[in-house]
Amino acid sequence: MEARSREGWGTRLGFILAAVGSAVGLGNMWRFPYITADRGGAAFVLLYIVMVFVVGVPIMLAEFGVGRRARLSPIGALRTVGGPRLAGLGYLYVATGFLILAYYSVIAGWTMRYTLEALLSGFTRSPSEYFEHTATGTGAVLYHIVFMAITISIVVGGVKRGIERASLVLMPVLFLLIIGLAIWAAFLAGSGAGYSFYLRTDPAKLLSPDTLSAAAGQAFFSLSLGMGAMLTYASYLSRDENLPASAATIAVSDFGVAFLAGLVVFPVIFAFGLSQEIGESALGALFISLPRAFIGMGAAGRIVGLVFFAALFVGALTSAISLLEVVTSSLIDNWRLDRGRAALGAGLVIMLIGLPCALNQDILGLFDQIAGEFLLVVGAFALALFVGWRMSDPLGEVRRGFASEGLLRGWLWIVRIVAPIILAVVIYQKGRATWELLRTTLF
Ligand code: PFF
Questions:
Q1: What CA–CA distance (Å, rounded) separates 409 from 402?
Q2: pLDDT 10s digits, 239-269
Q3: Cα–Cα distances in Å, from 140 out to 48, 121, 268?
Q4: If you measure from the C-alpha of residue 125 to the centroid of ligand 1, how many angstroms do you get, rounded to a whole number?
Q5: What does the pLDDT look like over 218-231, one tens digit per residue?
Q6: How far apart are CA 387 and CA 353, in angstroms?
Q7: Residue of 84, 215, 380, 381 with fewest CB within 10 Å of its CB?
Q8: pTM metric for this prediction
Q9: CB of 165 within 8 A of CB of 157?
């Protein structure tokens, strides 16, 4: 467990783009537009922004602080700064990483298949049949395996030559694709109706604790918090990096992409009169309604479909890389495996755990609920309490390079009081929903 030979980022931009790559993914381009439309439009967006900046950014900073101080992946880092009992939280993080990547890779496999379909033949078949055909069975298994193989091959390359290099290429590509799509969508005939559906305000929906927990859960998932991804990436940072500025940059970029995705999805759906389909299912909105619209556009639809699903695939890939890196770096730090074996071994096990998700969408939904919705907030809650009340001199770790002492004190009180209170409400809500789903799926 020595820090001497530890890998590190080559440049500050490399770290930022890798962390933005972890944050920006399926959560932004698929989950965010859907949840916003479902939960009250513009009012929900405001609540979401509050969650991202008042709770998400402070928790990210807490993860950064622990990771950089210990310069180890979650298990070793939490043991180093918090003693042997806290290592248990590190194990929870690694387990959460296993579970999330297992189903995330299955959905990412679908995006890969859709990208290839657009490239090779255009969307020609009935979208709902095509989705059924893609989402479960041997095809889903095959693309899941190929997606994991790509992810493994990048993580095997290491922090600088694998993850950083991939992020430096892929993230600018993703930004260009999504900005291009949003500009194109603005000129569609249905854009006005799409925007007003996306951002119509329904403040009544905001008052339920359910909406609060949806906004918080979405913020944590989207920012990759609560399972040590940001902690691990910060463990490769140099001592002089300005952590608050990095956290703010990552959060702004992540929100920007999510918001832009909504500005693409809704105009497209409205331009083709498919709005009645939006409420039907979250997955359907993306994988069925959009292809239907792309078919309606003829040749242009094929290009736009290609760009859209390619952007989704790129986002999913850079997020999957960070999930696999959490597990890989833990195997390297704790069990002294070499990187190649660690990434390959972890990747193969995750591939196997993901198989039931590729064969059955109910199981996929269950994994998402347990790990993506519930365990992340539990992980963030425990970390906030530790950093706020037990860690020695947390301010010392995040202060470097940052001038405002007032903001830093505000950060500490958010981590101590505000975040734990909000997270306790969210854990209660999500705990109940998770239990309900477990009961109905398994019994
Ligand atoms: N942030 C990713 C997304 O929005 O798709 C998902 C994710 C990646 C969650 C990494 C958690 C994580 F550690």
A1: 12
A2: 889 999 999 999 999 999 999 999 998 898 8
A3: 32, 19, 26
A4: 31
A5: 999 999 999 999 99
A6: 32
A7: 84
A8: 0.95
A9: yes
- Provide mean pLDDT across the span 81-95: 97
What is the overall mean pLDDT for the chain? Answer: 92
Q: Which of 59-68, 200-209, 294-303, 418-427 has the lowest mean pLDDT?
A: 200-209
Alpha carbon of 342 to ligand 1 centroid (Å): 21
**Domain region containing 118:** 12-35+67-203+224-240+257-379
Instruction: Give nearest CA residue, ligand 1 atom 12.
Output: 224
Q: Which of 326-360 are b and which e, b meaning 16 or more Cβ less than 10 Å from the residue's Cβ?
A: bbbbbbbbbeebebeebbbbbbeebbebbbbbbbb
Asked if 385 contacts 417 with a C-beta cutoff of 8 angstroms, the reply is no
- DSSP annotation of 157: T
Residue 421, both tokens: 């209170």
Does residue 207 register a pLDDT over 60? Answer: yes
Distance separating alpha carbons of residues 318 and 333, to the nearest angstrom: 22
- Looking at residue 355, its pLDDT comes to 98
Q: Which of 20, 93, 322, 368 to mutate to test the pocket of ligand 1 (most atoms within 8 A of CB)?
A: 322
Residue 49 lies in a domain: no
Name every protein residue with a CB atom under 6 angstroms from any ligand 1 atom: 22-23, 25-28, 100, 221-222, 224, 227, 229, 319, 322-323
137 within a domain of the structure (yes/no): yes
CA angle, residues 327, 252, 248, in degrees to nearest 5:
75
Token pair recorded at residue 71: 């310069």
Place of tokens 């119509």: 200
pLDDT mean over 148-158: 98
Please calculate the CA angle 351-64-165 and round it to the nearest 5 degrees.
55
Digit-coded pLDDT (tens) for 316-345: 999 999 999 999 999 999 999 999 999 999
- Ligand 1 centroid–CA 198 distance in Å is 23
Q: Which atom of ligand 1 is nearest to the CA of 227?
A: 13
How high is the pLDDT of residue 221?
Answer: 97
Quick one: pLDDT at residue 298?
Answer: 84
> 379 — phi, psi (to 5°)?
-60, -40
Q: How far apart are CA 191 and CA 195, in angstroms?
A: 6
R_g (Cα) of the chain, nearest Å: 21
Q: Name the domain count of the chain.
A: 1
pLDDT band for position 297 (50/70/90)? confident
Assigned domain for 96 exists = yes
Task: Determine the residue type at 283.
Answer: L
Can you read off the two tokens belonging to residue 365? 């939904």
388: in domain: no
pLDDT of res. 284: 63
